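Consider the tokenized backbone below.
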């Protein structure tokens, strides 16, 4: 499907506009191939790249209605991420260097992290947070990198202890629900290491766009150990979430409007079929688990968001990026900036500049 006219050319060709309202079409759900896991890497406690599955976690399923997870337990001793560390696409680029030929598959049109795509899916229904996406073309592929907005930076710097507590609770919930080996009981006595993660690389196709993206995965539901990419590609991944227990109609509406769209976007993009949510109280105690089928999430939120609009918007925006980012120059960056209720403004920034995000060690012959 061709996007409705996406850009308005200004007199200066280094600035273009993507009309958001003209690209909010429910229409037919676009073609989206089943995502295939084509690789992986781990990040250790020092955020070092590891070409292995050391951070793969296995889901441990307790009784849904008989749990008592203390999410605040050991929080003060948790090993935190460096909030000021901007890793850009560096870990994905290292994986690409080691895996320059990803099977018998054409080079992707786009390379990015799943979080960026989820952000695009949510944009048609986002009312508060804007975004900045940087794009550079190298070797026929457009690399997309999310950049923190000034508003987001200020929010992070002014984050309250309570907000930081909520973030840590999510990591602790994962510790209660996963173990290092299949069939092994989780060990929740140790401080959580929030720096470690497993990233799985997926390839797929959204209409005409070939995508390759990395996604941090919470855990896999498997009774046997997984030791290869082929086994990983057949595995059943599970997404783990926490949410405050719902007690009022307003809380229920907010849950369906704001949380389910992100849960659906994250999970649908990588083919996850089930999200398990731990409902907690204000003290951080999880008393109940509830599974959510990803395919049913849009029906639960039918009055608040539409998956067709989400996916079509993403498709149209990527077409716009293709039409704009045509020059092969890894130092030159196109900055796409969006604020709620406004259009996307694309600005060309000739490099090298502070926005250049592809490193010389990746682009050098």
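A designed sequence for it:
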């Amino acid at each position: 499907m061709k996007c409705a006219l996406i850009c308005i050319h200004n007199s200066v060709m280094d600035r273009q506009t993507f009309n958001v309202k003209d690209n909010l079409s429910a229409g037919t759900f676009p073609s989206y191939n089943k995502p295939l896991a084509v690789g992986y890497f781990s990040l250790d406690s020092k955020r070092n790249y590891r070409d292995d599955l050391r951070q793969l976690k296995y889901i441990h399923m307790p009784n849904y209605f008989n749990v008592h997870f203390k999410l605040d337990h050991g929080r003060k001793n948790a090993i935190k991420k460096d909030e000021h560390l901007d890793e850009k696409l560096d870990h994905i680029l290292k994986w690409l260097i080691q895996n320059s030929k990803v099977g018998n598959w054409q080079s992707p049109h786009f390379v990015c992290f799943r979080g960026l795509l989820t952000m695009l899916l949510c944009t048609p229904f986002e009312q508060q947070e804007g975004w900045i996406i940087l794009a550079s073309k190298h070797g026929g592929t457009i690399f997309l990198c999310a950049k923190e907005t000034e508003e987001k930076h200020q929010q992070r710097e002014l984050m309250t202890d309570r907000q930081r507590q909520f973030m840590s609770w999510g990591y602790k919930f994962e510790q209660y629900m996963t173990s290092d080996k299949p069939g092994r009981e989780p060990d929740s006595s140790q401080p959580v290491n929030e720096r470690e993660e497993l990233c799985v690389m997926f390839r797929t196709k959204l209409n005409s766009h070939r995508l390759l993206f990395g996604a941090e995965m919470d855990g896999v539901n498997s009774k046997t150990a997984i030791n290869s990419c082929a086994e990983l590609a057949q595995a059943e991944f599970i997404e783990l979430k926490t949410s405050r227990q719902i007690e009022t109609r307003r809380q229920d509406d907010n849950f369906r409007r704001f949380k389910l769209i992100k849960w659906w976007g994250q999970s649908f993009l990588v083919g996850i079929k089930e999200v398990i949510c731990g409902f907690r109280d204000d003290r951080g105690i999880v008393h109940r688990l509830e599974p959510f089928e990803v395919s049913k999430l849009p029906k639960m939120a039918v009055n608040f968001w539409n998956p067709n609009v989400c996916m079509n918007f993403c498709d149209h925006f990527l077409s716009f990026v293709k039409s704009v980012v045509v020059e092969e120059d890894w130092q030159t960056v196109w900055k796409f900036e969006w604020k709620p209720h406004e259009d996307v403004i694309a600005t060309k920034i000739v490099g090298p500049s502070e926005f250049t995000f592809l490193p010389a060690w990746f682009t050098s012959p």
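The radius of gyration is 21 Å.
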